[in-house]
Amino acid sequence: MATFNNTDLAAFKDVWVYCEQRQGKLMPTDFELISEGRKLADELGVKLCGLLLGDDVDGMAKELGGYGADKIYVCDSPLMKNYTTDAYAKVICDAVTNLKPEVLLFGATNIGRDLGPRCAARLHTGLCADCTHLDVDVANYVEFLRGASTLDVDNMKWDTEDRNLKMTRPAFGGHLMATIICPRFRPAMATVRPGVLKKNAFDKAKADACEIVKLSVSLSEADIHTTVEEVVKAAKKMVDLIGAEFIVSVGRGIAKDVEGGIKLAEALAEELGGVVGGSRVTIDSGWLSADHQVGQTGKTVRPKVYIALGISGAIQHKAGMQDSECIIVVNKNKDAPLFEIADYGIVGDLFKVAPLLTEAIRAAKAAK
């Protein structure tokens, strides 16, 4: 890999997104990152480029253009048919060294969390992990802080010419939000939590206009120190919170009858065709497995309907579900913070209210 001066900030340009594919299928995080990358590239006045690696993957590149990419760099090699850290990190670092992007984004998937830090270390730059918000434009960042923090932003001094990528992520176990910048090195790198960014609508005209560039790949078997003998998909059934249109979540309010509270939530979710989620306390207490957790330290969701049963609404939980299309809150405490963002609020005992909701939905479905 050729050397390059990563402190020469003027030499770096464009926003790049690593577009993850598995067995020839693009991941949902690709479309979210491309959509967000479009916003960042527009704020910087540069191009948005996707970086797609694998074996015979150029056929899927155009689809990424439909979500906002100007250009897709395709790195194709039989040695990248199956993901290995060695192969993918080398090819990405070679591409960055030669083309010098200003920003490089990864999804915070299992692969992204493995690949991002390895590339950052080789490129001698910083990486902010598990981000939930990104900004370049200072005015947009201040507006974000106005709604997401308690800072007195109007009485603070801001450098309106600041072009650094502002990467916001949970800190101290989700109790605080921290914004990180990388002012001295490029590219600025981040992994972004799946589900937190809004995906643009697909535009076929943009897909057709997207430029596809095949990069020369310098990769040999000697560069790869591990061999993938077989890919086995786990049979474990996981809760798909991110893809669910209806979520019924439970919190501390089910403490008096945990098993009964979960069964009520499951019945309501089943009637809606949705899934059961939970606040952090339900996971920490062992009432639900970790794949059910909604919040800053869990999954960020955007369902059509989010029903919160017995959840008071700590800031960590609110951050993970506040963008739901419709929020219904059931809590005995009329002062529960979650009522502040609810579209519909019911002050009452969840053990009495949840069965009534289930019956009402069942009756409405039968009447159709």
Keywords:
single chain; 368 residues; alpha/beta; Rossmann fold; 2 domains; 7-stranded parallel β-sheet; 5-stranded parallel β-sheet; 10 helices; 17 strands; globular
How do the strands and helices of this protein lay out in sequence?
Blueprint: E1 15-19, E2 21-22, E3 25-26, H1 28-44, E4 48-54, H2 61-65, E5 71-76, H3 85-99, E6 103-107, H4 110-123, E7 127-131, E8 133-135, H5 138-148, E9 166-171, E10 176-180, E11 188-192, H6 204-209, E12 211-214, E13 246-250, H7 258-272, E14 275-278, H8 280-284, E15 305-309, H9 315-321, E16 326-331, E17 344-347, H10 350-367
Parallel strand pairs: 1-4, 1-6, 4-5, 5-12, 6-11, 7-11, 13-14, 13-15, 15-16, 16-17
Antiparallel strand pairs: 2-3, 8-9, 9-10
Helix pairs in contact: 3-4, 7-10
Give a verbal description of the structure.
By secondary structure, the protein is α/β, with parallel strands linked by helices. The protein folds into two domains: 9-223, Rossmann fold, CATH 3.40.50; 246-367, Rossmann fold (3-Layer(aba) Sandwich), CATH 3.40.50. 31% of the residues lie in helices and 21% in strands. The protein is built from ten helices and 17 strands. α3 (85-99) packs across α4 (110-123) and α7 packs parallel to α10 (350-367). The mean pLDDT is 90.
